[in-house]
Amino acid sequence: MPPYRDSLVHFFRFIIVGGVSTIVNYLVFLVFLKYVGLQYQLSSSCGFLAGVMVGFPLNKMWTYQHSSGVTWGLLGRYASVYAVSLFVNICVLGVLVGFFRTDARLANIVGIGITTVTNFIGTKFWVFGSE
């Protein structure tokens, strides 16, 4: 079996979990933006947090099949990866919407796309690969 097989399996599972998390993220974003009337960056933050809350247990149990219990260290590392990701996403939104006048709905999709690879690397090697 090739040594990179586990990484490929993890990546494909991460993409599936990411797809589910992204759907949750985007639906929450749209609800807060359109129906609650929240500003686009705050709406994006709410969606992002909802997606992270869905993604953590799915990534732990299915993507990486991480067998140890949930610890503060594990939660802290996961939160750190996604806090950086949220910051990057908010910056992308700010630049695309504020500077390039891109529609916030499209800009949010671009931000999600940009952070996917860094999230995978962070969760695979730092969060779930460190215990």
UniProtKB/TrEMBL annotation:
Membrane topology category: Multi-pass membrane protein
Domain of life: Bacteria
Keyword hit for Transmembrane helix: yes
UniProt keywords, alphabetically: Membrane, Transmembrane, Transmembrane helix
Transmembrane segments: 12-33, 40-58, 78-99, 106-128
Domain (GtrA/DPMS transmembrane): residue spans on this chain: 13-128
Major localization listed first in the record, in broad terms: membrane
Cell location: Membrane
Membrane among keywords: yes
Family: Belongs to the GtrA family.
PANTHER family in alphabetical order: PROPHAGE BACTOPRENOL-LINKED GLUCOSE TRANSLOCASE HOMOLOG
Protein's recorded name: GtrA/DPMS transmembrane domain-containing protein
Source organism per UniProt: Acetobacter ghanensis
